[in-house]
């Protein structure tokens, strides 16, 4: 009678085969870790992963979905023609643990037997769908799935780390660019403003997140007149700062060659339109003051009207034209003229001031601006602006600035 017990020879053969399986798994892990250490791209890492599962582990069907600004299929093989990866996304995101589908039939997932989700805390990183996993006589399904799960986690975490590292580099690069842009922008803002027997000026500039699109300037013209302006470039960030830098250069050049204020603004509009192709706009208030005649000529190009306070009360300087850069040819343009009294005050500002909200949702309205001007008109413009800045910060409380805030204050002596 033959013995039913396995022979020593068969036991040795089984152990040898099991050892070969383990060696194959160790080799696969070494291949993956070496690829990660060599900083191969995410696509190449998944090609290696695909080869290991197909050729070495005998997984006949595979689809891997990666979370990266949305879920998308990063690799697949062995699936029937016409398989639509997008058609299973709504189903796979329901799973947060390894699941066998044998007791959970899903029409969308009929081609697969197992799902392996990879999570970091509550955030899904990837989903691996497996179908027709082949098992030899020398291994168990549980052991094979554990290994597939391990290698899937290693690959997905490595790819996620690459993504986070790239994001960190991009953020650092953007931070350096923003710091450089802020430095350049600060050079364009006048370091000093007139404070003499004719004119006293002071300014406050609070760029949104250290860089913005507001601009103000004051230029002494060859004919003894003084040209001053305040502007607001649409948008925020680096794009607005670059346009602001170009605008400053253009404005300063044209100010020296255009004698008429209307010609000056029309030339500004032509250049802005040519540069921005109608995709960016600039609101502008520009004034030309003659200290000899005490006449102020101005054009308001869609900007918040500056507030003039004289003996007769408040006046809003609104006359002008449309926003710069909106039309290749200005539909119409006109200038305003004001006879300036001794001691009157002109407050120029951008809409970041009057759009500012406090914690109750109330805005810093133009009425509040006028009230502040009336109550603090006796101070020097520097002190006036410091008090104004404190008033603004107290008003907003814990609310963030949502836009650049610029104030150009002027007293005519």
Q: How would you describe what is shown here?
A:
This protein folds into two domains: 8-164, GAF domain (Beta-Lactamase); 179-412, PPM-type phosphatase domain (Phosphatase 2c, domain 1). It is 40% helix and 25% strand. The chain has nine helices and 16 strands. Strands 7, 8, 9, 10, 13 and 14 form a six-stranded mixed beta sheet that branches. Strand 7 (214-220) and strand 8 (226-233) form a beta hairpin. The radius of gyration is 35 Å and the shape is elongated.
List the helices and strands and how they pair.
Blueprint: H1 8-37, H2 42-56, E1 59-67, E2 71-77, H3 89-92, E3 99-100, E4 114-120, E5 123-133, H4 141-188, E6 199-206, E7 214-220, E8 226-233, H5 237-257, H6 261-276, E9 282-290, E10 295-301, E11 307-310, E12 313-316, E13 320-321, E14 336-339, E15 345-349, H7 351-354, H8 366-376, H9 381-396, E16 405-412
Parallel strand pairs: 10-13
Antiparallel strand pairs: 1-2, 1-5, 3-4, 4-5, 6-16, 7-8, 8-9, 9-10, 10-14, 11-12, 11-15, 15-16
Helix pairs in contact: 1-2, 1-4, 2-4, 4-5, 5-6
């Amino acid at each position: 009678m033959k013995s039913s017990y396995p022979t020593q020879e068969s036991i040795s053969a089984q152990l040898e085969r099991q050892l070969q399986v383990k060696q194959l798994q160790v080799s696969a892990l070494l291949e993956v870790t070496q690829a990660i250490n060599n900083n191969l791209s995410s696509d190449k890492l998944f090609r290696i992963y695909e080869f290991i599962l197909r050729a070495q582990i005998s997984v006949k069907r595979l689809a891997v979905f990666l979370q990266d600004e949305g879920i998308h299929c990063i690799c697949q093989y062995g699936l029937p023609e016409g398989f639509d990866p997008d058609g299973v996304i709504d189903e796979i995101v329901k799973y947060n643990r390894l699941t066998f589908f044998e007791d959970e039939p899903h029409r969308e997932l009929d081609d697969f037997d197992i799902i392996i989700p990879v999570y970091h805390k509550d955030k899904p990183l990837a989903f691996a769908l497996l179908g027709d996993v082949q098992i030899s006589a020398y291994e168990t399904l549980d052991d094979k799935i554990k290994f597939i799960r391990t290698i899937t986690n290693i690959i997905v975490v490595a790819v996620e780390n690459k993504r986070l590292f790239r994001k960190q580099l991009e953020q650092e690069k953007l931070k350096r660019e923003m710091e450089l842009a802020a430095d350049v922008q600060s050079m364009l803002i006048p370091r000093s403003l007139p404070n003499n027997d004719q004119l006293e000026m002071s300014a406050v500039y609070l760029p949104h997140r250290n860089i913005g699109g507001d601009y103000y300037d004051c230029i002494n013209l060859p004919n003894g007149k003084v040209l001053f302006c305040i502007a607001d470039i649409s948008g925020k960030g680096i794009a607005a700062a670059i346009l602001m830098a170009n605008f400053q250069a253009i404005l300063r050049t044209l100010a020296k060659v255009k004698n008429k204020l209307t010609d000056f603004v029309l030339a500004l509009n032509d250049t802005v339109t040519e540069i921005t192709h109608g995709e960016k706009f600039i609101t502008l208030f520009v004034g030309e003051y003659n200290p000899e005649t005490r006449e102020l000529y101005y054009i308001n190009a869609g900007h918040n009207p500056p507030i003039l306070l004289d003996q007769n009360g408040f006046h809003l300087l609104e006359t002008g034209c449309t926003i710069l850069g909106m039309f290749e040819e200005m539909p119409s343009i006109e200038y305003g003229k004001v006879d300036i009294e001794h001691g009157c005050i002109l407050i120029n500002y951008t809409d970041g001031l009057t759009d500012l909200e406090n914690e109750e949702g109330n805005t810093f309205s133009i009425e509040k601006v006028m009230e502040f001007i009336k109550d603090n008109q006796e101070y020097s413009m520097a002190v006036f602006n410091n008090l104004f800045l404190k008033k603004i910060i107290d008003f907003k409380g814990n609310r963030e600035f949502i836009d650049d805030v610029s104030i150009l204050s002027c007293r005519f002596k």
